[in-house]
Amino acid sequence: MIFDRGSTQSNLECFLHCTTPTVKSQFLPKSEIRNLNRLWHPWEREKVEYFTLGDLRNCYDEWSAYGAGVPIVLNNSETLVQYYVPYLSAIQIFTSNSLVKGLREESESGDGERDSFSDSCSDESQSDKLWRWDGCSSEDGESDQDSLWHMNNRLGYLYFQYFERSTPYGRVPLMDKINELSRRYPGLMSLKSVDLSPASWMAVAWYPIYHIPMGRTIKDLSTCFLTYHTLSSSFQDMDPEDDIESPERKRKEGEGISIPPFGLATHKMQGNVWVSGNCGRDQERLVSLLSVADSWLKQLRVQHHDFNYFMGIRRG
Predict the structure, then answer these.
(1) Sequence-distant (≥ 6) Cβ neighbours of residue 143 within 8 angstroms
(2) Which of these, 93, 166, 98, lies nearest to 130 by C-alpha position?
(3) Backbone angles phi, psi at 80, to 5 degrees
(4) pLDDT category of residue 261 using cuts at 50, 70 and 90
(5) pTM, two decimal places
(6) What is residue 30's predicted lDDT score, i.e. its pLDDT?
(7) Which of 3, 13, 8, 63 is nearest to 273 (CA)?
(8) Can you give the pLDDT at residue 226?
(9) Could you count the other beta carbons within 10 Å of the beta carbon of residue 228?
(10) Is the per-residue pLDDT at 3 higher than 90?
């Protein structure tokens, strides 16, 4: 059996590569480039690429149905492919006030009750309360109203947020969950990455289902992963410091936009299958990605249920 994996990739690098979505890109009409929020897009460009959240969802179609295959080399040099199914773990979408109002009116014109697990801001006051965090406290001589104006201009207005709390067995794959939520919140399909503030993000939980060739149970492969991804074009051309892609494979214009995880958490990691490569650098990378995910959640003052569970933090 022949497995498609780079000869120099470690198991961890292979997992990150195989579960990173590459989204179909489009070019923003020149007439719309000048209307971009300059706080979120400070660079002057002739061409601006973007993707829609609907196209991002499509990247998870096949993975949601069949799992994402990750070639893995075990300690005894045996090679197999482990499959993981993605589940939407958390998402927060921040955009401009005008878009939030327009999308909210569109949602309210439809029928049906809100999803029992979803949590979307129903008015600006809720969004304002969410963003009264220490990192943006008002300075001396500046009124709370002015401070709030600056906060919302920089971080955007909360359009939608969702935090999964069901057990893994009670969840539906990411594709199905987004389809379900988008019936009430159409922006989950229509919003463009250029419309989203840098505070927009999502977390995907990856649970193992089976491996090929099948047979014995391998404890090392029971590990579950939690990947964190930015959704805004503000980070589009900012490659991670230790990018898994080689320099010669740098993305070309119009080739599709890759959204690698900026943070990562793991659960049930046993053995050293995931940390045995790269002369110990994989262990350092896991620690670094976990630290970034933790810092991101603390900065946004978010209690992410899956992250707390992965870390062994039990909250009521």
Answers:
(1) none
(2) 93
(3) -150, 175
(4) very high
(5) 0.80
(6) 62
(7) 13
(8) 98
(9) 22
(10) no
φ, ψ dihedrals at 139, nearest 5°: -90, 165
What secondary structure does DSSP assign to the chain, as a single string?
A: ------TT--HHHHHHHHT--EEPPEEPPHHHHTTS-TTT--S--S--EE-BHHHHHHHTHHHHHH-EEEEEE-TTS-EEEEEEEEEEEEEEEEE-HHHHHHHHHHHHHS-SPPPTTEE---SHHHHHHHT--GGGPPPTT--HHHHHHHHHHHH-EEEEEEE--S-GGG---HHHHHHHHHTT-THHHH-BGGGS-TT-EEEEEEEEEEEES--S--GGGG-EEEEEEE-SGGGTT---TT-SS-GGGPPPTTS-EE---SEEEEES--SSTTTSSGGGHHHHHHHHHHHHHHHHHHHTT---HHHHHHTT----
Mean pLDDT of the chain: 76
Q: What is the pLDDT of residue 112?
A: 44
Measured CA distances, 222 to 70, 89, 268, 270 (Å): 13, 18, 6, 8
- pLDDT per residue as tens digits for the range 305-314: 999 999 987 5
pLDDT given at position 37: 54
